[in-house]
Specification:
Number of strands: 5
Helix content: 55-70%
Structural class: alpha/beta
Oligomer: single chain
Strand content: 5-15%
Strand order of the largest sheet: 2-1-3-4-5
Bound molecules: CO-5-methoxybenzimidazolylcobamide
CATH topology of the largest domain: Rossmann fold
Radius of gyration: 19 Å
Largest sheet: 5 strands, parallel
Number of helices: 10
Length: about 240
């Protein structure tokens, strides 16, 4: 502990600081993670670079040790809270691009699943790219998705799942949309660590998004395609 106390984050160079932030995230040291984020921003790092290199990479390491039984739920929760504290600082900066509204997305984690860090990242990146995002949170039954799309009329419905046991629920949502005849009114994008393209196709989603950056690119591409085909259908050249 004494050694940890002796470290002055602002005296570390960028590489050492990022390494230290990975350690602090791992140890669930929220104040230190916040301080590190502020220092990197003060040194001219873009919010996106801080997010990906300091926070997401740190969380990736936490994930490996959680998988291998080295870290347990309480420790991972502390790491997740530290990550969220860093994201609170970055969120307004990522959204501050002044980009025009590009479209609207409703996003939520599926029923039975409380993982929200990845979903929050996707929301942040989408907001940063100029999309309006309605985040309906975690553990959403199909009724929540239907109510949100009915209320907000988004271009995109995004679903997140981190567990192999909860990802099949995406099919329940999409099948219900089909039954109600509204499936094709929306672009449906899905994501989460255990998913892949074949899974997305098998549940009837429009695309699988490997990460938040891919989600933004896919959203742009699909909205543009939809606008093109709508214009063609209306005979607009
Ligand atoms: Co959980 N957990 N967890 N966990 N957890 C995983 C997912 C796991 C892989 C860990 C492991 O064993 N290696 C494992 C799942 C195994 C499996 O299903 N085969 C697991 C387990 C088992 C569990 C519990 C069952 C543990 C238990 O209780 N025994 C339990 C389940 C609770 C529940 O949901 N019902 C549980 C609980 C927890 C915590 C509460 C402790 C905590 C969650 C805190 C929180 O989210 N607020 C937690 C965490 C943090 C993790 C790991 C370590 C990290 C997840 C994360 O935040 N990653 C995770 C291990 C791992 O994934 N490596 C693990 C960082 C995040 C940035 O990445 O979420 O993949 P990710 O999101 C990415 C992309 O996937 C994509 O973009 C994001 C950003 O780039 N993306 C989308 C995600 N959603 C998208 C939606 C889109 C588009 C892209 O829509 C358009």
């Amino acid at each position: 502990m004494a050694e940890e106390d002796d470290i002055v984050l602002s005296e570390l160079d960028d590489e050492e600081l990022v390494q230290q932030m990975h350690d602090d995230l791992y140890d669930g040291l929220k104040d230190e993670v916040e301080e590190g984020v502020n220092i990197l921003l003060g040194r001219g790092w873009t919010p996106y670079k801080v997010l990906t290199e300091a926070l997401v990479e740190g969380m990736r390491i936490v994930g490996i040790d959680f998988r291998d039984g080295i870290l347990f739920v309480p420790e991972v929760l502390m790491a997740a809270n530290s990550m969220k504290a860093g994201m609170v600082i970055l969120r307004p900066l990522l959204a501050e691009t002044g980009a025009p509204r590009m479209g609207k997305m409703v996003i939520g984690t599926v029923k039975g699943d409380i993982h929200d860090i990845g979903k929050n990242l996707v929301s942040m990146m989408m907001e940063g790219a100029g999309y309006e995002v309605i985040d309906i949170g975690i553990n959403n039954p199909v009724e929540n998705y239907l109510a949100a799309i009915e209320e907000h009329k988004p271009d995109i419905l995004g679903m997140s799942a981190l567990l192999t046991t909860t990802m099949p629920y995406m099919k329940v949502v999409i099948d219900t949309m089909k039954e109600k005849g509204i499936r094709d009114d929306y672009i449906v994008l899905v994501g989460g660590a255990p998913l892949n393209e074949a899974f997305a196709e098998s549940v009837g989603a429009d695309a699988y998004c490997r990460d938040a950056a891919v989600a933004v690119e896919t959203a742009k591409k699909m909205i543009a395609e939809r606008e093109r085909s709508n214009s063609a259908a209306m005979g607009v050249s």
